[in-house]
Amino acid sequence: ADELFVCSSAGGGLRLAVVGYESLVTAEAGHRVGLSAGAQVVHVAAGLLDGKAIAALRAARPDVILLVGGTDGGDEETLRHNAGRLATSRMRVPVVVAGNADARPDAARVLTERGVPVVVTGNVLPRIGVLDALPARAAIREMFLRHVIGGKRLSKGRRFASLVRCATPDAVLAGVSLLADETAAGVLVVDVGGATTDVYSALVPDGELEHGPQRDVAGTLWRSRTVEGDLGVGVGAAGVVAAAATEKLPGPDISGGRPYDVAVDRALASTAAMIALRRHARGHSPGPGLPRTGGRDLRDVRLVVGSGGVLRHGGGQAVLDAVLGDTAGGWAAPRQVRRVVDTRYVLAAAGMLAEDHPAVAAALVNSL
Predict the structure, then answer these.
(1) Of 7, 62, 59, 55, nearest to 34 (Cα)?
(2) CB atoms within 10 A of CB 338
(3) Which of 73, 173, 226, 302 is surrounded by the fewest CB atoms within 10 Å?
C-alpha cells in the first residue's frame, strides 16, 4: 500500500508555555527550542512560580508546558519547586520535563502523582552555552500529536489523528535544514500566511560563536524558526498595519475590508515579511528592561526562499525584493543571494520525507 505522510497545524497548532530558571538562560533556551519545534510560544515564565505566576500561566491557555531549569550539575531547586506548583495548580496541562538531570525524576514523579501527563527528556541546556534541542523537540512533537491533534476532537474518527506525523512548521524546519545541508550554505525562508508569518533560518555553524568567548549563554540554534502571531494577510492584516506604524513603515490600506484586492494582498505580504524578518534577525527581549537576545546574523545567507499563498500566486519576487531591500530595519541583509519562491510547497513535504526517504526528500529540495 502507498504510504501517506500528513502534517497539520489544525486546531491553531500547538500553544506552548515555557517555565524556566533564569530569563536569559534556561527560560530563553526553552523558548528557542519551543519555536524550533513548530510551537507557538504563548508564555514564558522564569524563576520560582508563585500564585501570580500560575495565574498568568493559566491565562495563556497553553496546550503543553515545557518545564526546564538548571544545567546538569547546576540548580535543582527551581525545577523541583516549579513541578510541585504545577502539580497542585489543577491545570492538568501536559508537561515536558527537560531540565536538570538530577531533579527530573522528582519533578516527573510529583506531576504524575497528581495525574498530569508527563514526558521526560534530555536537558535543553545541559551546560552553559550548549543548547540540545533535539530531545525536547521530539517530546513536544509527541505531545502535539497525542494531545492537540488527538485530543482536540478535530475529526469524528481516529484516522486523521493517526495519519498526522508532525506539526507543519516542524516539517518545514526539517525541510529547510535539509536544503541547507544539500546546498552547503545558509538558507533563509519567509512564509507569509493568513494569520501568521514564519521565518526560518539555517546557518553554517561558526566554531568561534559556538565555543569561543562570544558564545551565547543560552546556546545557539543554527537551524531556527520564529513565528509572528500578529502578522498575516488575512485575519492578521490589522496586526500588520499596527506593526508597520511601530516600525515606522507605511501601512497597507485595508479600509476597504476583506477580501482584499491583489495589490493590497501583496502590500500586506511585503510588509509582514519585512517586519517578521526584522524581528527574526534582531532577536527579542525576554522581559522589560532586558537586552535583546537570540538575534541572527544573516549576512552569509546564500539562498532566500519565499512561501505562502500570496507569494506563490505571482507576488513572490516583489515580496522578496522588499525584504532584501530593507536597509532601515536594524539588521544586515545577505550580501550575495539567490532568490526563489516555493511555488509547489516542497519544503514541508521534504521535511516529512527526510527521515524515511532521504533521497526523495533531497530531490525535492534540490528542485527549488
Answers:
(1) 62
(2) 13
(3) 73
Residue-wise pLDDT tens digits, 143-199: 777 766 665 555 555 666 677 887 788 888 889 989 999 998 899 999 998 888 989
| Helical packing angle, 104-113 and 77-87, nearest 10° | 10
Domains and CATH numbers, the chain: 6-154 (3.40.50.2300), 168-366 (3.30.420)
Could you tell me the pTM of the whole model? 0.75
- Asked whether 175 and 350 are in contact (CB, 8 A), the reply is yes
At 210-245, the pLDDT tens digits run: 444 444 444 456 788 888 878 889 888 999 999 999
Q: Which own/partner contact pairs does 325-333 have at CB distance under 8 Å and 24+ positions apart?
A: 326/274, 326/277, 326/278, 329/247, 329/274, 329/277, 329/278, 329/281, 329/282, 330/278, 330/281, 330/282, 331/277, 331/278, 331/281, 331/282, 331/295, 331/298, 332/281, 332/297, 332/298, 332/299, 333/298, 333/299
Q: Does residue 268 contact residue 152 with C-beta atoms inside 8 Å?
A: no
What is the number of other CB atoms lying within 10 angstroms of the CB of residue 238? 12
